[in-house]
Amino acid sequence: MSLDLMARQVHLIAKSKGFWDGEVTYDKIGNKLALVHSEVTEVLEAIRKDQGQEKVVEEMADIIIRLVDLYQAMVNTGQIKDSLDFILDKKIMKNMERPALHGNKF
Fold first, then answer.
1. Which end of the chain has less neighbouring CB within 10 Å, N or C?
2. Cβ neighbours around 71 below 10 Å, total
3. 38: how many CB neighbours lie within 10 A of its CB?
4. d(CA 56, CA 11)
């Protein structure tokens, strides 16, 4: 399944569960990004507390879900026009051409 298609499906579910009432404002976008960050922290905690690989992957899935949900909300309001699939492919190709550590020390 493409990320663009996944985003549409995930966003429809999130809307049906009440996660997107009202307008998609900068404050709401910031809140949704903070929730992505909280999911990243949950991955770290699952690793730190040795909760098992399934819990780690589940939390990684939550990151993807929250991120593609936000992406689709921004697409729906015209704030984003580019395809996530297209830009991701382009970025992967760009990264393939970059030097080790992208030219940084770490």
1. C
2. 22
3. 13
4. 23
The amino acid at 45: E
Task: Count the domains in the chain.
Answer: 1
| 8 A C-beta contact, residue 3 and residue 84 | yes
Give the pLDDT score at 36: 98
Cα(16)–Cα(9) distance, integer angstroms: 11
Q: Is residue 106 part of a domain?
A: no
Tell me whether residue 105 is in a domain: no
3-state per-residue secondary structure call for 3-32: HHHHHHHHHHHHHHCCCCCCCCCHHHHHHH
Q: Coil, strand, or helix at residue 62?
A: helix
Is residue 12 one of the residues assigned to a domain?
yes
For the chain, the farthest-separated pair of C-alpha atoms sits apart, in whole angstroms, at: 46
- DSSP strand E in the chain: where? none
pTM (2 d.p.): 0.92
- What are the pLDDT digits (tens) for 90-106? 999 999 999 999 999 99
